[in-house]
Amino acid sequence: MRELKFLNQFFWKYRWRLLLGIVFICVSNYFRVLQPQVIREALDLVIEQVNSYRMYDGFDLGVEYFGVLSYTLMLFGGLVLLLALLMGFFLYLTRQTIIVMSRLIEYDLREVIFDHYQELSLDFYKRNNTGDLMSRITEDVNKVRMYLGPAVMYCANLLSTIALVVVSMLAVSPTLTLYTLIPLPFLAISIYYVSNIIHTRSTFIQQQLSKLTSVAQEVFSGIRVVKSYVRERQQVNYFAQESEQYKEMSMNLAKVDAWFFPLMVFMVGASTIITVYVGGLQVVAGNISAGNIAEFVIYVNMLTWPVTAIGWIASIVQQAAASQKRINEFLETKTSISDPAPDDKHQLRGDITFEKVSFVYPDTGIRAIDKVDFQLKSGEKLAIIGRTGSGKTTVADLLLRMYDVTEGRILVDGKDIREQGLANLRRQIGYVPQDVFLFSDNIHNNIAFGASHDPSREEVEQFARYAAVYDDIAGLTLGFDTMVGERGVTLSGGQKQRVSIARALIKHPEIVILDDCLSAVDTNTEQQILGYFNEALADKTAIIITHRIYGHLKFDKIIVLEDGGIAEMGTHEELIKNGGYYSEIVERQMTEEEEA
Ligand SMILES: Nc1ncnc2c1ncn2[C@@H]1O[C@H](COP(=O)(O)OP(=O)(O)OP(=O)(O)O)[C@@H](O)[C@H]1O
């Protein structure tokens, strides 16, 4: 239960609501407990008066007497109705305070978790799968809310009902109270066990359901592959297998679920029989009135739900503690990339220095970068070339501080990037990643996403022109308002790359990193984009990771990476003279172009 302590800060935040809710529930229960007392009075009155009425039967006085009795009973009926209304009104207020409080805390908690998720570094996202992140912020928060709202409300209800009912019962007959209450602890314990079994089985069902969902999601996302490999039947069979398991589990749950109400009715029935039997003996002995038996039967019914709720509350609290534990695990995870100066807003010049930088991926132990040493002055252009897996993307990730270097230092404007404002650094780097990701939104918003201001349509269009994608977008029926699906399904690979370039450029960055972002673009478009780069990025520092050599873009430095280390470094002319990997691909590319 230690885990739930984390939530106390929220209870404190909404303490007045909580307190008011508890007061309302006590008032509501007070009116509820008065009802059986009014009914007892009415019943005793009827029993007593019916005997007297028989004496006047056949006389005129008898009719009058009957009129007065009916009127008094109507008054009692009206009183019970009034008490029920008052009780209902305060119950409404209870829900308006406690359940609303739980919804407010749910909102706060989600925000805290979401904020924290955003702060965490890439290695956290590599370690944990998206489904797990999602379920903690949705299902686990839901389970915790059940504790914050219903469990707290039923707990307050339980305590106040038991206190008020038991005090009223004791005032009538301590012996009868004792006998009446005997079956109730058995009810609480058995409901607790049944609830626990239900919970365990529900958890398995939940897991199976999320497995089923991910199977379906994966098949639908990869539907092209499934269709092209004619694997529909296998997928259907696999889905049916998983569905069958889900069905079996649900049937098992239904079997236990079926015990819940019969058990409750049996225990309440036992309690009622004891009340009538022991109460009857006491009436005969003249200790209590017949009306008291009716009063006790109503009390027993009043206690049924709160006592049943003990088992239920215990189960909710257990589930909430387990969920909060999972939430706390992530909340306690510290980001490995800290921001030493969150308010830093200084303008970068764009000098970049890698000083004997090495990097080992923590999860795989792969040494992706090995003693990389280079310097770029503000405005210089660097091309990084190398075979796949040679560490090119890792260089970009390190400069953006997606990871921190294992050895060595990266300096921007002469200062270690680990000592600079992280947000400020990232804000001034325009990064186009290799695997383009577009949000499920329209094209305008996807491009505007990069800007620190709210850019006008004209500005967005201008940057789309720079990225040579304007004509493609203008050709769509909805133009810049076209929605791009979950993964930009309506755009081709090359179009997505260019939208992603426009998004990076609209930031007006001081440093630009393009990671193989022209791979899906034809030569003409490539020339168009590079023409803009030459002009607009003339004074910006740029790192271009590529597999192709761009004759149109003049690089101050070219680095050839091999197994994370620098195999060749120099200008185009120097590397051609070297006769290494670089000259090899230049030659191959020239032959290809000639052949084309
Ligand atoms: N997140 C990661 N966790 C563990 N190892 C990784 C991770 N990302 C990359 N690697 C490994 O680091 C090495 C360098 O990868 P990197 O992506 O930097 O290469 P690259 O030169 O950009 O390749 P490509 O040209 O195919 O994009 C590879 O061996 C790769 O398997």
From TrEMBL:
In which broad location class does this protein mainly occur, judging by the first location in its UniProt entry?
Answer: membrane
Membrane topology, as annotated: Multi-pass membrane protein
Q: Which GO terms describe its cellular component?
A: plasma membrane
Determine if Repressor is one of this entry's keywords.
Answer: no
SMART domains reported in the protein's UniProt record = AAA
Q: Which UniProt keywords apply?
A: ATP-binding, Cell membrane, Membrane, Nucleotide-binding, Transmembrane, Transmembrane helix, Transport
- Per UniProt, residues of the ABC transmembrane type-1 domain are 19-319
PROSITE patterns given in the database record: ABC_TM1F, ABC_TRANSPORTER_1, ABC_TRANSPORTER_2
Task: Name the Gene3D superfamilies on file.
Answer: ABC transporter type 1, transmembrane domain, P-loop containing nucleotide triphosphate hydrolases
PANTHER family registered for this protein in UniProt:
ATP-BINDING CASSETTE SUB-FAMILY B MEMBER 10, MITOCHONDRIAL (PTHR43394:SF1), ATP-DEPENDENT PERMEASE MDL1, MITOCHONDRIAL (PTHR43394)
This one is known as ATP-binding cassette, subfamily B
Q: Which organism is it from?
A: Neolewinella agarilytica
Lineage of source species: Bacteria, Pseudomonadati, Bacteroidota, Saprospiria, Saprospirales
